[in-house]
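Progress note, project year one: complex with pyridoxal-5'-phosphate.
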Amino acid sequence: MDIELSQALARVQPSATLAVTQKASELKAQGIDVISLGAGEPDFDTPEHVKQAAIDAIRAGKTKYTAVDGLPELKEAICGKFKRENQLEYVPSQISVAPGGKPILFNALIATLNPGDEVLIPAPYWVSYPEMVRLCGGEPKTIPADIQTGFKIKPEALDAAITPQTKWFIFNSPSNPTGAGYTAEEIRELAEVLLRHPHVWVMTDDMYEHIAYDGFRFATMAEVEPNLKDRTLTTNGVSKAFAMTGWRIGYAGGPAKLITAMRKVMSQTTSNATSISQWAAVGALTGPMDFVEERNAAFKRRRDLVLADINASAGLSAPVPEGAFYIFADCGPWIGKTSAKGNSLKDDVGVCAALLEEEAVAAVPGAAFGGSPGFRISYATSDEALIEAGKRIRRFAEGLE
Ligand code: PLP
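Model obtained:
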């Protein structure tokens, strides 16, 4: 007899971004020259000084269990980072370290959500937010934003979405999947609304803080409005800025009661994040940051390459993203058309399937992000691959009828 799966799991969709990457790898294995624009990780290497901190930790035998929610040295380094870069004063008892940004968000949700609790999520959203909320027994409620507002929500929309059941507002800037970054002024407008609703907690996801362009100045909610700090969990991690996706370190600063509850979750599930990775993260958060500027220059060049091709493809449009390494293209005018090879494009899932089949370009459909009709392109790949992908997308657009 087959094993019966839990009702909690039945509420959850598997990650669509991982599915696209998987499909692209399968085609590659068959010898097809697929350009994968699906991945959500920098193609750069982890900086040398970070690797060295990990090597030193191994050699020094720092390979045992650590405190469940983070080494004291790492918590100190995180407090230093929050103070230096975000003007936020946290003490170590207000810091949590987990095996990635994903578990940080999950631990906070599982520690706080009860059946019927609602979580507000601006859409297009990062694929995991609604699924994690469902897994934890809560109800995701999306606040749609479209291309006209650069995929950013307006304060009136936030206000209208809040109900007595609202527990959290999840706020991700710069955003995966749109790259939209909110200015301090735009965050202030949202904060004004939140101040009027004291029962709503704020979970910021600042994972892309350091990946920003054209002088965009990152700001986070608790920094912009200190009166919200007592009900804000400021989450971040080393995965993207330091190209450390495989090391698995995420962290958060927030009220001690919440941090303690998250520690309780970890104590009975994962225990600590890898000791060696934690030492690497100490190296990352206390070391030089000059490589960030260099890498951002490369990302910006790639962003502009892709934007030019999107804008040159009839029927596609995208706002200029302030940060992250994604472009979210609106493909509304393509829906209902037929491709050169006879695929009828019913929705964005069909668009991405046809792009993959006909032009061997893998992008993720907007449906995965609550952002139909559109698709996400990750430009964290080589210039050559992006130039070729751009040609193929334009050719696909020209073939539509
Ligand atoms: N938050 C956002 C917006 C992301 O895009 C990602 C990764 O794709 C994460 C969190 C999770 O990061 P980690 O790999 O550290 O779990």
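The radius of gyration is 21 Å.
Residues 67 and 272 are 7 Å apart (CA to CA).
No further modelling is planned for this target in the current period.
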